[in-house]
Amino acid sequence: MKGEPDIHRLERRGTSMTMSENSKYQLPFLLLGFAAILLLWNTPLVYPVKIFTVFLHELCHGLAAVLTGGRIVSIKVTADQGGLATTAGGWPLLIVPAGYLGSMLFGGLILLGASRTKADRAISLFIGITVAGVTLLFVRNLFGFAFGLAFAAGMAAMGRWGGTALNDFVLRLLGLTSILYAVIDIYSDLIVRTVPCSDASAMSRMLFGPPAMWGVLWMLTALAAAAVFLRLSFKGKRSA
Questions:
Q1: How confident is the model at residue 194 (pLDDT cuts 50, 70, 90)?
Q2: Does some domain include residue 93?
């Protein structure tokens, strides 16, 4: 309904080398990264990255609204990894799936930026500035606002003063976790159990089929996208 907020709710429980030389190290590095993230999945070390992925999820709903003629009203991110994007106008059929698939896309792009380019510090700085801007403009709850500013400050400071190796490591961590989180979240929230206010439930109401069907479709899409991003990231950084 144009001009009226379309409320979207997401509920959750709680030395320089050539390209060919560098690519030899990409696969084991990424596999070790996946293993480490899985082992530390429910620890405080990975928690901030998971919250960042929730932030991305909600932002992608908002961006989809803007790209289809709507606007972002507000964004909320909670400590239990939940989120709420309130939008006005736009095309719901694109806004609803944009959360999971959009956060996967941005996670993949962050991973590619770290793996294939030498612009790690610039990417970190860009992420910091972007998160700060979105937080100041749209985030309304205390936890989300505090997290957004703290995360933005950390990324901007790292991009400005941190070494290339540190920025590369953190960006790969962000990218890998965003990809993994999207896949796990789709499986948990949309296939294993049905959350009444989930994106899949909203899609089911707008079109057809049970929520689990949309969960499976998005899961397959996410897995295919993950495979593409990982394959591309194996090639390593481009030589200068």
A1: low
A2: yes
